[in-house]
Specification:
Helices cover 5% and strands 33% of the residues. It has 199 residues and is mainly β. It has one domain: Jelly Rolls. The strands form three sheets. Strands 1-9-6-11-4 form a five-stranded antiparallel sheet, with no helix packed on it. Strand 2 and strand 3 form a beta hairpin.
């Protein structure tokens, strides 16, 4: 059974098992017991789903401020995305650094993003659906973010020559240098992503 030692970074890449036969496959996409075995004791209270028509759609980099801060568990239901988490915890030695993972409907991969990280993704193909669990309810008075193309964060978005498709709200998000983070470092620096199946 997976253990906490397999997840040195607070952001975790998950690959739930699929059981296949000639009809197709079955997977437990979320299990509180399984996540607890990985050291994730997050209680999720809301499920969200988005549809993006065009490849190159960017949603992010978002977070909610306390007292309505959110951890997220993200997966792709149709198509594929590159999903990113950016450390915005005050005092963190990895402040402003990010990790990313490709999430696909075909593979069923997931990314767990704890409180204290900004989150965003880009669609890698047309007609993509993304679903994610959150640990607190949507609170518009607490929503905030970091601009997607902040050079201090340095995400190399795989636009492949396309222009980014963004909401007007996301185009106006602040730079990291202008952020007064409401999150404190918890002693766990951001590290390389390991899967829940890595030793």
């Amino acid at each position: 059974m997976p253990s906490q030692q397999r997840a040195p970074s607070p952001v975790l890449f998950l690959r739930p098992r699929r059981f296949s036969d000639d009809r197709g496959w079955f997977s437990e996409t979320y299990s509180e017991r399984r996540e607890a075995s990985l050291g994730l004791r997050t209680r999720f209270v809301q499920d969200n789903q988005s549809f993006s028509a065009a490849a190159g759609t960017i949603r992010g980099l978002h977070y909610q401020r306390p007292p309505r801060a959110q951890a997220k568990l993200v997966r792709c239901l149709r198509g594929s995305i590159m999903d990113y988490a950016v450390d915005i915890r005050q005092g963190s030695p990895t402040y402003g650094q990010h990790v990313g993972a490709r999430l696909t409907a075909a593979g069923g991969e997931q990314l767990y993003i704890p409180i204290g990280f900004a989150h965003g993704f880009i669609t890698l193909e047309p007609e993509v659906e993304v679903a994610y669990k959150v640990s607190d309810f949507y609170a518009p008075e607490c929503e905030d973010g970091v601009i997607w193309n902040d050079p201090e964060v340095g995400i190399d978005w795989p636009l492949e020559g396309r222009s980014a498709a963004l909401s007007a709200k996301d185009e106006r998000l602040p730079r990291l240098r202008d952020l007064v983070s409401p999150f404190e470092y918890d002693g766990r620096p951001l590290g390389p992503l390991l899967t829940d199946q890595d030793d």
